[in-house]
Amino acid sequence: MKKIIVKNPIVEIDGDEMARVIWQLIKEKLIHPFVDIDIRYFDLGIKHRDETDDKVTVDAANAIIEAGVGVKCATVTPNAARVKEYNLKQQWKSPNGTIRSILDGTVFRKPIIINNIPPSVRTWNKPIIIGRHAYGDIYKNIELVVDSPGRAEIVFIPADGGEKKTLKIHEFKGRGVVMGMHNTESSIRSFAKACINYALSEKIDLWFGAKDTISKQYHGFFRDVFAEEIEKADKELKAKGINYRYLLIDDAVAQVIKSEGGMLWACMNYDGDVMSDMVATGFGSLGLMTSVLVSPD
Fold first, then answer.
1. How far is 60 from 70, CA to CA, in rounded Å?
2. Are residues 278 and 292 in the same domain?
3. CATH classification at residue 124
4. Which residues, 6 or more positions from 52, have their beta carbon under 8 angstroms from its beta carbon?
5. Among residues 22, 68, 46, 81, which one has the least CA distance to residue 57?
6. Same-domain status, 209 and 238
7. DSSP string over 63-122
8. Backbone phi, then psi, for 15, in 5-degree steps?
């Protein structure tokens, strides 16, 4: 049998535990016998990440930028127990988070619906697609355990030499913990555009949820940028009968559970991480949830 020749290379990112074993079987039985392809291999197994001080993860992400496409196996993000189990140097960050940050992409997760695995949520009869903003927030955070009384502040120093801005976070009287995180307008705008384009291609309604009643600046910024991009695409969306809804994230959760499905639910990074697993379980299985990371370019 003549093999299918693939012109362009693809980046292969190996993973951990059973994903590594199953992926090897898939290659041996379903890919190599039938496809002639230039594969650029990166081992993101936890031991190799530790050996390279996680440089291999950055190299893999940059290779995807060059090749344009990659396939990644599931990987372990180590906690304290894993550090001890594998004798690691430290608790390395999520490789998925690192790759998402470098690619500045949006993760779209869509359930595979099959008749013999009915949804656990009986009202769901259409796919619910999660669009997860894949940059920044808690996945690109800086955090610190506070060991003694003191003041924690946010400080912004303009590059043009403008006036420094300082905001007090908290005056600690004893031990505690503090965290700083960020996002960028360009990444949020790319996220909104990607979600709009995906909704147009799938011809489904688009929802976006945040908590701007509490986070009036951070979440409010997301809300406003998303609204600006929606306004630009208004004619296209209306032409295809696609409706846009902005909801508080807790209201969005309640509405999704009561719905029949059939929408693209755009989520901020952490919300998308949690809700994609909730939706996957609601449709029957985490294993029946496709996951694609799409960069804006």
1. 9
2. yes
3. 3.40.718.10
4. none
5. 46
6. yes
7. HHHHHS-EEE-------HHHHHHHT-SS-PPPHHHHHHHHHT-EEEEEEPP-TTS--SST
8. -125, -145
Q: What's the distance, CA 150 to chain centroid?
A: 35
Q: Are residues 165 and 242 in the same domain?
A: no
Return d(Cα 161, Cα 166) in angstroms, integer. Answer: 15
Q: Are residues 26 and 46 in the same domain?
A: yes
Domain that holds residue 157: 142-179
Each residue's pLDDT expressed in tens, for the chain with a length of 297 residues: 799 999 999 999 999 999 999 999 999 999 999 999 999 999 999 999 999 999 999 999 999 999 999 999 999 999 999 999 999 999 999 999 899 889 877 889 999 988 888 888 989 999 999 999 988 899 889 999 999 999 999 999 999 999 999 999 999 999 999 999 999 999 999 999 999 999 999 999 999 999 999 999 999 999 999 999 999 999 999 999 999 999 999 999 999 999 999 999 999 999 999 999 999 999 988 788 888 888 776
Written as six digits, the tokens of 144 are: 């610190």
| Six-digit token string for 157 | 């120093």
Count CA within 13 A, CB hemisphere, residue 278: 13
| Total of domains in the chain | 3
Q: What is the DSSP string of 123-167?
A: T--S-EEEEEE-SSGGGG-EEEEE-SSEEEEEEE--TTS---EEE
Co-location of 170 and 136 in the same domain: no
Asked if 158 and 282 sit in the same domain, the reply is: no
